[in-house]
UniProtKB/TrEMBL annotation:
SUPFAM superfamilies: YbaK/ProRS associated domain. It holds the Pfam family tRNA_edit. This is YbaK/aminoacyl-tRNA synthetase-associated domain-containing protein. Gene3D superfamilies: YbaK/aminoacyl-tRNA synthetase-associated domain. The lineage of its organism: Bacteria, Bacillati, Actinomycetota, Actinomycetes, Kitasatosporales. It comes from the Bacteria. Residues 56-169 form the YbaK/aminoacyl-tRNA synthetase-associated domain.
Amino acid sequence: MRAPIGTFDEAWPAAERLDVLCPPVAEAVTARHTAGPESVLYVDTDPEKADTAVFAEAYGPGLLDASANCVIVAARRAGETTLAACVVLSSTRLDVNGAVRRHLGARKASFAPMDTAVGESGMEYGGITPIGLPEHWPLLVDAAVVDRPHLVVGSGRRRGKLIVTGKVLAGLPGAAVVEGLAR
């Protein structure tokens, strides 16, 4: 199958590539495959080219604007820390101390430490995806992501990416669409 965006050699329904997905992502793809077999596609990519700018240069013009990053945030209030995932277009910046902090009702919000994000998500750094994150985490999706017909997101590993629609991301468990999450 041909990928709808990018210059990838081949794309597969992610449910057919469970062997290359990390366990939480494989489980989520299997459990939530309700929008049809092609609602979540997997493309194989070089793990050395996983970082957004390098990835976009390697796999096709326009991918920077057709990619979304999943950022794990630690929000604190009254001595309690809540981890949350935020999905924004790769060409934008997450408004951690404004929109994220306000939406989560936190006194302070910051990027989660790498070892916390990796350990709690069960995914590799540089490949964290909103698909398969712990369901009790808030999942904030920037409104600009929702209407995108195709987006590249992490696969849970540095090798490989998933291609989804913005609507698939907005429909994930615990997802809340937030206007102005990114600038």
